[in-house]
Give the backbone structure.
Amino acid sequence: MKKITLLSLALFWACLSSHADVKLPNVIGSNMVLQRDMPVPIWGWADKGEKVTVSFGGETKSVVADGKGKWMVKLSALKAKEAPSKMTIEGNNKITLDNILVGEVWICSGQSNMEWSIRSSMNAKEEIAASNHPVIRLFNVPGHKVHPKPQERLAIPTEWKVCSPETSSNFSAVGYYFGRRLLKELDVPVGLIGSNWGGTRIEPWTTLAGFESVPELSKEAEKVKSYNADSKVGGGSPSAIYNQMVHPLAPFAMRGGIWYQGESNGGEHMSYYHKKHALVNGWRKVFQNDELGFYWVQLANFRQPNTKPEGGDGWAKIREAQTKALDIRHTGMAVAIDLADAHNPNDIHPRNKQDVGGRLAQWALHQTYGKKDLVPTGPLYKAHKIKGNEVHLSFDHVGKGLMVGKKTKLEPTAEVKGGKLEHFSIAGEDKKWVWADATIKGDTVIVSSKEVKKPVAVRYGFTMNPANANLYNKDGIPALPFRTDDW
């Protein structure tokens, strides 16, 4: 009997000690990158009332865990640091985290085109062999998991990894190429957090607060508010992916997010515009950063080209909604209508992720990092004037000027001297569309047709696969598809 009593007592104290140990979320660990130039939350769990002390970079901060055992400190803004540092977190126990850098942190999220790995993309063997970047760190959320309520921990534990040929191959190709360019241009450590799920819609990635911020999405908000801990949710349920694959990461300090998604919402128009607002609003709130940069990819060309001048088929309207969402402050959009394989137009996963990541980085470098010498994107329709039988189009982001261009795989965009602009159509008051002649004059494109004496509207690349669209700026980035009408 005495032995049993002593054993029970030992187990009791062991359980009590274990319960009181300081614990951290998965995203806080060795090899991580901390965001520079802003307060950095460090948080976790302990016994209620337990004092927890965090030390990093010569700074020490203490806090007492609340009634639910939660605690958080915020480190003062840090300067970029490539030399590895240690962090200690001490309460009832002591945790030491090693090999920590300070630099720029971004989350890379969306459906399969963001999830698409380096090993499945163009020039995979060479790219993986060249991915020895010790100051790029990768954190990939594993599995495809959902929950009806926001979760504090990831469903499957994971950890930060140093980017190398041994660790990079399964990471998001778009995310990696984005981060690689940031490293090249900024020369500071880069932390990349991947959280992706192929085939998913935008709604399951959106927070309740995000839905509530957009009146048009009140039904989605009510749906999420109806969940309880036992509600059955799946990969298409509003907020369900966010709850398990993004919420456990918050409020890790980061500069911004990149997003490649929309194919699964491809039949939508302005409803997607509202959902993009909800997504960004919600993530900015949960990551406690109103200045969180957010850059997305406009859907790439897909399916067989449409030869009808009116277009409007397939993804034309969701691309329009993606463009309209640029009215969200501190956002941008990478154009991808020239990056699909012309020989395999039915492949929804263009293998050229290098240019996608590079174009996302171009936006971030220009807007988030203030490199105003870089044009952020291709020509963006601004206004038009009707002069007789001609429509004169003006654009933002003309960069070094307009040109007829040709993009071939990973090669830089080439100017086609004497080339003819294609994929412009024009209509008169009868709303009948015909293919148009278009010429570049300075920073203007002049559109006309002998068949339309009194034009009223122009469309460019407004179709599922604008395969022949070839208006670029001389910086090598294609013009965004657009229409001047709202028919």
Q: What stands out?
A: The chain is about 20% helix and 30% strand.
